[in-house]
Amino acid sequence: DGGITQSPKYLFRKEGQNVTLSCEQNLNHDAMYWYRQDPGQGLRLIYYSQIVNDFQKGDIAEGYSVSREKKESFPLTVTSAQKNPTAFYLCASSGGQGFYEQYFGPGTRLTVT
Amino acid sequence: RKEVEQDPGPFNVPEGATVAFNCTYSNSASQSFFWYRQDCRKEPKLLMSVYSSGNEDGRFTAQLNRASQYISLLIRDSKLSDSATYLCVVNSVKGSQGNLIFGKGTKLSVKP
User: Fold this and answer.
1) What 3 state SS string does chain A have?
2) Which residues pair with A49 in a beta bridge?
3) Rounded to an integer, what distance in angstroms lies between the CA atom of residue A112 and that of residue A87?
4) Is pLDDT at B95 greater than 90 in this prediction?
5) What is the pLDDT of residue A99?
6) Which of A47, A111, B99, B103 could form a disulfide with B88 if both were Cys (CB 3.0 to 4.6 A apart)?
7) A13 contacts A21 by C-beta, under 8 angstroms
8) Nearest CB neighbour to B96, from listed A56, A105, A109
9) Which residues in chain A are closer than 8 Å to B102, comparing Cβ atoms?
10) What is the per-residue pLDDT across B44-91, written as a single tens digit (0 to 9) for each?
11) Chain B residue with minimal CA distance to A102?
């Protein structure tokens, strides 16, 4: 089955710790995205990557970092510099090059205390 | 004007009702439009793309009015399973055009 997987589903961390969220896709999509969703809010773009070994900051990149070493994988690190890291994190992918529909993974709920 | 604006609802309707959601977008250069559905504590899922000529998929009809920068979604014969938040989505015209801008969503609750 083709799709996007994110792990873990729930993640708990202490303040001051970095944490890495996994996102893998087997849809052969070129583009991948990370969003954050807070209660009652819309999705906000953190980082995106149109191609392997290249990525761009989205609207709220501060306190986050990413890598895109493989087409299938786009991990997100939430660093201790992120002031309000507790949120629902969603990874998405799209075919790129004019194929704008994005398909989402199931998300990771991160709680930092 | 916000980039994508939706009535947050909630819309509470009985089963079998027809319900319409509206959405406005700010940038006239946007070219791609979508409706996504998001169930509580789940990821958004693509419901349908919106084409200039309007399009229908079963009980769902989407319309686009470029002159008014307005998108609509009509759901006929509502089912209990239609209860969800509906997100209006428009492609960005700054940065990468593949980027999408998501509205905050309109919540629908269908009651028996």
Assistant:
1) CCCEEEECCEEEECCCCCEEEEEEECCCCCEEEEEEECCCCCEEEEEEEEECCEEEECCCCCCEEECCCECCECCEEECCCCCCCCEEEEEEEECECCECCCEECCCEEEEEC
2) A32
3) 9
4) no
5) 67
6) B103
7) no
8) A56
9) 35, 42-43
10) 999 999 988 889 999 999 999 999 999 999 999 999 999 999 999 998
11) B46
Nearest CA-CA partner of A94 in A4, A1, A13: A4
Evaluate the CA torsion angle A74, A48, B43, A21 in order and state its sign.
positive
Q: Which amino acid is at A47?
A: Y
At A102, list the tokens. Answer: 């994005």
- Residue B31 — left, alpha, or beta (φ > 0 → left; ψ -120 to 50 → alpha)? alpha
Contact between B88 and B6 under an 8 Å Cβ cutoff? The reply is yes
Residue identified by tokens 């209660």 is A39
* One-letter amino acid for residue B18 of the chain: T
Which two three-digit tokens encode residue A28? 């052969």
Closest CA to B37 of B82, B4, B86: B86
Phi, psi of B81 (to 5 degrees): -70, -5
A2 touches chain B (CB under 8 A): no
Residue B80: phi and psi, rounded to 5, are -55, -35
SS3 of residue B57 by DSSP: strand
**Does the beta carbon of A39 lie under 8 angstroms from any beta carbon of chain B?**
no
